[in-house]
Design a protein that fits this description.
By secondary structure, this protein is mostly beta strands. It folds into two domains: 71 residues; 377 residues, Porin (Beta Barrel). The protein is built from three helices and 17 strands. A 16-stranded antiparallel β-barrel has the order 1-3-4-5-6-7-8-9-10-11-12-13-14-15-16-17. A hairpin with a 4-residue loop joins strand 13 and strand 14. The longest helix has 25 residues. The protein starts with a helix and ends with a strand.
């Protein structure tokens, strides 16, 4: 009789506890199916100990429901930066000159020959140049078109969104806003989406990542610092145009061995990883065959960080429907970190046959590379030095030819004003060698990066 007298009070307490704890979680769960008829009759516990046991099971179920609801909540974070700068250029800001008298050797049958490098006088981390020049026979969008005049510029406003709908899934987007001068009553402002991907990390160890969408390159190492808030200095290298462009497709990256000493990455994309402003970029593709790329890197067991890597890509020529014309790139890279000194190096070679019938340029990248050193003098002050070269011929017979034998020396300084504000400055000396005539295209540029 004592057990039956205590039954209503005991179970009333348990019921109140269940309702109070379960209400928030149950509100987000689908309705449960109706219980069977035999379950409608109230149970009659034989001992008081049974009441405590059943209450414990109820609390355990409540905790499981709460964890399930918490894990279902999607976490969304915002980040980005404002990149504001000032630049001044030598000459008219263009990196090429026109061979009006057709004296440059080897291109006698071409209508126009422009020795030099269109993208050498870069003024920001986007790789934009001060001026593309008023070259005959072509109409191009010249975003800055300074004509040699110095000035202030908002290089880029970036907005990044990062969502984690599940513990092993990350959605990332990156959108760039670039205010530029319009003409003929139209705005010159641009918007581009440079990243839109899902990263899935299967398994408990999560040492393999599978990316799908508009994804980062796997060629070389410079793509890791292509954005101005990630780059130690300001301007990209002379070979960044071949390796740092995002592409649409699928990528897999795995870390192997103890301490992740071996990293393997492979990707299948619509086209190459050239940058969008270059001759060869093609985002949505015009042929049915994909481009395959990959990188293998090894970190040696040394007292300092030393990563040695090699990467390459192979696929049909971008912007051409002819899959028989391949475009390929290959080259080694290196990262060394010792104390306050970082050393980055990369070399690249590539080729594509082109297709004059579809106005697709041919590329002969005989070789290009850079050696870059970062030195952290104090927690607030850093110095940069970079030496590089690029030997290439870009042609569209019989119309246009761009022979390039370029070398560049860059000196830079950065000042960390706060965790959200970094001020950087660089001087670029662009030179020509071999039979390419000299072009006046040195650059002084600055960048104030405000992160949020």
């Amino acid at each position: 009789m004592s057990a039956r007298r205590g039954w209503p009070a005991t179970w009333s307490s348990v019921a109140l506890l269940v309702v109070a704890r379960a209400a928030p979680a149950l509100a987000q769960l689908p309705p449960a199916p109706p219980p069977p008829a035999e379950a409608l009759a109230p149970a009659e516990p034989d001992e008081a100990g049974d009441d405590a046991s059943e209450a414990s099971l109820v609390e355990q179920q409540i905790r499981q429901n709460e964890e399930l609801v918490a894990n279902r909540r999607q976490k969304l974070t915002f980040a980005g930066y404002v990149d504001f700068g000032y630049f001044a250029t030598e000459g008219n800001g263009s990196g090429v000159t026109q061979d009006v008298l057709h004296t440059y050797p080897g291109y006698a049958g071409y209508q126009w020959v422009f020795p030099g490098d269109l993208l050498a006088p870069a003024i920001n981390s986007r790789g934009e140049v001060a001026d593309l020049g008023d070259l005959p026979g072509v109409s191009r969008y010249d975003a800055i078109h300074s004509g040699g005049a110095p000035g202030f510029i908002v290089n880029e406003v970036n907005l990044r969104l990062r969502a984690t709908p599940a513990p092993n899934a990350i959605i990332t987007t990156s959108v760039n806003f670039t205010p530029r001068t319009g003409s003929n009553f139209s705005l010159g402002d641009m918007l581009d989406v440079d990243l839109a991907q899902l990263e899935w990390l299967p398994g408990e160890a999560q040492r393999t990542s599978i990316f799908v969408g508009k994804i980062e390159s796997v060629l070389g190492i410079e793509y890791r610092q292509r954005k101005s808030d990630q780059r130690f200095g300001i301007t990209p290298s002379l070979i960044a145009r071949y390796t740092t462009g995002p592409a649409l497709g699928l990528k897999v990256r795995s870390k192997l061995g103890a301490d992740d000493w071996l990293v393997v990455a492979a990707a299948v994309t619509n086209g190459s990883n050239t940058t969008e402003q270059f001759f060869f970029y093609d985002e949505t593709d015009r042929n049915a065959s994909p481009t395959a790329s990959g990188r293998l890197s090894v970190r040696l067991p040394l007292p300092f960080w030393l990563e040695l890597g090699g990467s390459g890509s192979y696929g049909p020529q971008d912007r051409s429907t002819n899959v028989a014309h391949p475009m390929w790139f290959v080259g080694p890279d290196l990262i060394l970190r010792a104390g306050r000194i970082d050393v980055l190096a990369q070399w690249l070679k590539g080729h594509s046959a082109g297709d004059p019938t579809q106005d697709v340029y041919a590329l002969a990248l005989h070789g290009g590379g850079y050696l870059e050193v970062h030195a952290v003098v104090t927690p607030s002050v850093g110095l940069l030095g970079r030496l590089e070269y690029r030997s290439a011929d870009i042609t569209l017979p019989p119309q246009r030819a761009y022979p390039s034998r370029t070398w560049r020396g860059t000196l830079g300084v950065r000042f960390v004003m706060d965790t959200w504000a970094v001020l950087k400055a660089e001087y670029l000396h662009n030179g020509e060698y071999g039979d390419v005539p000299s072009v006046s295209d040195d650059v002084f540029t600055t960048s104030l990066v405000l992160s949020y």
